[in-house]
Write a structure and sequence with these properties.
The complex is a heterodimer. By secondary structure, chain A is an alpha/beta fold. Chain A has helices spanning about 15-20, 35-45, 50-65, 85-95, 110-120, 130-155, 165-180, 185-200, 215-220, 230-235, 245-255, 265-270, 280-295, 310-325, 340-360, and strands at about 5, 25, 70-75, 100-105, 210-215, 235-240, 300-305, 330-335. The longest helix of chain A has 28 residues, at about 130-155. Chain B is of the alpha/beta class. Classes of the chains: A alpha/beta, B alpha/beta. Chain B: This is R-phenyllactate dehydratase activator. Chain B: GO terms for molecular function: hydrolase activity; iron-sulfur cluster binding; metal ion binding.
């Protein structure tokens, strides 16, 4: 029996676990990365590997210890070295004496044959066409609901009267999604999630709005970014991330399959500054910053793992972009050395800076695209 | 007359000031933190205790990396990050300031102000070369009191070029130059230039440095560093009289501006209370938060570090 495990990325483990189980695999669930996970990863990773590499390597060691025999991860193309990470991690782990199979899911547009072969390895039960449709619908809904709950928590947290309620509601929402058995239950859960956040007492204020751009792993995994969104929310700031699970899956798997470039608008916005792709999400960081600016946000925070080349390229362009659109910019570099207190100092100062600017009534943004559209 | 207390607990120094209603500094205390912030804050309060009758404290502000801890110990009304505090203090001293250079024990910062508003700032990220601790350590290694370090640098006629990219390399380069027989003052002057170069390349990169430039923090006392900045920037660099306690002054000014009605200040007797801190790792979920308890005379008065508020909310029950 395959005992499948995978990296821990935000709440993505919930739909992925369900998918793997539906395909007839045993799942060894990774746990949320802790300091020990990071220490494990740092111990065996090359010194200048980036933070996501170290955390994921640590996670792999933990799940292999728990008995996993198959590791599933995504690959990638382009200059960002993350595309080669699974190969390197496999080598490191095998040299440590672990026995397992590494299955790398490469982007469909270039490696469709490999991808299908790899997915076949993960399907260990007989499924009809109808089953596939049912599973796909369920997983997709789960992804969407998890994103929805998270977006609601970001929206409500700066407004909550009693501190901590939004975080609690979010935790409950995730549990509800995790426990739902089929699509019907998920639809009920959707209503419940909305209720959970509706019930919270909210202040009637117009919070400062900060967009968060950067590398995907540190964006999606709170243990890697020191829970920056909660920190911002607690300071009374509406923080919106440029990337969410469902959107990312959609653009990078489905659109890619039909050879359509994902996130066209983002890339188009970045074009004047960033003509070539540089791998990773460097270009998306610039494009998303411009979109945030046009929607009337007050500032942009860029999260990048230390030594991440795509984000370094973006970091050199972003100050110019933010100056042009007259919004604040704060780059945050994350590494295993990063202390939370230092980050808090920078974030607090950044928020002070933005509120002082706001008070001076800088006119900016496109009134038609209010900052809180969507939800 | 109303007075305001400002406390800045940094990695190297703990500073306490008292300002009056006009923002004038009445007391300024500079202490070494020595890794024991609680002790340092209490020591500072003890030094002020005999003047308790002179001052009527109406508000207290804390800043620095130990601001939360200090706030609990003294009972603060305003808790602010040091970047804002330094900007406020610099602006009070020099109203038309456009650039603040602040070099402390562990961090170096640049703050850009335009029309009286902070528009940009940066802090050193991954490298600590050029901060107070490093200069301290080098002075110690060379057997020169840190106070004389700067004036010695000014004596130099032929500064030696030192690699300042990283503290470790800077030190080995300095040792190398010593072994070659260069004069001490030339090496020290070269070090100051290297640190300024490093600061402008790393911290000040991409920032428009316009006059007036205010240089504050403990390192501003170093005449060699001031001269090196003036040389590199080709403009006058102003060092305020109370440059070493500007963070504390900023915290006090913020407390004054906050318009506190009833201060939480425990009074100078807080120096006699018995404070302890201990911590544990919560195993309630996979977050594994490190929760810290701050106790006053054995009673828990504050708790932080947990993400889910499970422990934080318990403080109400004490």
């Amino acid at each position: 029996m395959r005992k499948v495990s995978f990296p821990f990325v935000g709440t993505a483990n919930i739909p992925f676990e369900n998918l793997m189980r539906a395909f007839g695999n045993d799942v060894i669930l990774p746990s949320r990365p802790t300091k020990e996970t990071l220490s494990l990863g740092t111990k065996y990773a090359p010194e200048f590997a980036c933070l996501p590499f170290k955390i994921v390597l640590g996670t792999y060691i933990e799940v292999l210890e728990k008995g996993a025999n198959t590791l599933v991860s995504t690959g990638g193309v382009g200059p960002c070295r993350a595309g080669l990470y699974t190969a390197l991690q496999e080598k490191i782990l095998k040299s440590l004496g672990y026995e397992f199979e590494m299955i790398t899911l490469e982007p469909p547009s270039r490696y469709l044959k490999d991808l299908i072969q790899n997915i076949k390895k993960l399907i260990n039960v007989k499924l009809s066409f109808k089953d596939y449709i049912r599973i796909a619908k369920f997983i997709w809904k789960e992804l969407q609901l998890l994103d929805k709950a998270e977006k609601l928590s970001h929206k409500v947290r700066p407004l909550e009267v009693k501190k901590g309620e939004a975080s609690l509601a979010y935790k409950k929402a995730v549990d509800l999604v995790r426990e739902a058995k089929d699509l019907k239950e998920l639809l009920e859960v959707e209503r419940e999630i909305e209720n959970l956040f509706d019930k919270i007492d909210k202040k009637d204020i117009d919070p400062i709005k900060i967009g968060i751009v950067g590398e995907i792993y540190v964006l999606l995994e709170p243990s890697a970014n020191l829970e920056i969104e909660e920190m911002l929310g607690d300071l009374g700031v509406y923080a919106e991330r440029s990337m969410f699970l469902a959107g990312y899956t959609f653009y990078n798997a489905i659109m890619d399959l039909f050879r359509r470039p994902g996130e066209m608008d983002v890339k188009k916005e970045a074009m004047p500054y960033f003509k070539e792709m540089c791998g990773g999400h460097g270009r998306e960081s610039v494009g998303n910053a411009i979109i945030f600016a046009k929607r009337g946000f007050d500032g942009v925070i860029q999260l990048s793992p230390f030594t991440c080349i795509p984000e370094i390229v973006a970091k050199s362009i972003l100050p110019r972009v933010c100056e042009k659109y007259n919004i604040g910019f704060l780059p945050v570099t994350l590494d295993e050395q990063t202390g939370k207190e230092g980050l808090r100092t920078r974030i607090e100062a950044f928020v002070d800076l933005l509120s002082a600017r706001k008070k001076k009534n800088f006119i900016k943004g496109d009134a038609k695209n209010g900052a809180l559209f969507g939800y | 007359m109303a007075h305001y207390l400002g406390i800045d607990v940094g990695s190297v120094s703990t500073n306490i000031v008292i300002i009056d209603d006009n923002g004038e500094v009445r007391e300024a205390i500079y202490l070494r933190t020595q890794g024991q912030p609680i002790k340092a804050v209490q020591e500072g309060l003890r030094m002020l205790a005999n003047k308790e009758k002179e001052y009527c404290i109406k508000g207290v502000g804390t800043t620095g990396s130990g601001r939360q801890l200090a706030a609990v110990i003294v009972g603060a009304d305003v808790v602010k990050n040091e970047i804002t505090a330094h900007a406020v203090a610099a602006q009070k001293e020099v109203p038309d300031v456009q650039t603040v250079i602040e070099i402390g024990g562990q961090d170096s910062k640049i703050i850009i102000l335009r029309d009286g508003v902070v528009t940009d700032f940066a802090m050193n990220t991954v490298c600590a070369a050029g901060t107070g601790s490093f200069l301290d350590q080098q002075a110690n290694r060379l057997g020169i009191p840190i106070e004389e370090f700067g004036s010695l640098a000014l004596k130099s006629q032929n500064p030696v070029r030192i690699a300042g990219r990283c503290a470790v390399f800077a030190e080995s380069d300095m040792i190398h130059k010593q072994q070659l027989g260069h004069k001490l003052e030339d090496i020290i002057r070269g070090l100051c230039q290297a640190l300024v170069r490093n600061y402008l390349n790393n911290v000040g990169k991409g920032k428009e440095i316009l006059p007036r430039v205010v240089f504050q923090g403990g390192v501003a006392a170093n005449l060699g560093m001031k001269a090196a900045f003036e040389e590199a920037l080709q403009m006058e660099v102003y060092v305020p009289k109370y440059h070493h306690v500007m963070g504390a002054i900023g915290a006090a000014l913020l407390a004054k501006d906050a318009g506190v009605k009833n201060t939480n200040f425990r009074g100078f007797r807080a120096s006699e209370l018995f404070f302890t801190a201990d911590s544990f790792e919560c195993r309630g979920c996979s977050n594994r938060c490190e929760v810290v308890n701050i106790k006053m005379d054995g009673k828990i008065i504050a708790r932080w570090g947990d993400r889910c508020n499970k422990w934080k909310t318990m403080e109400n029950s004490f």
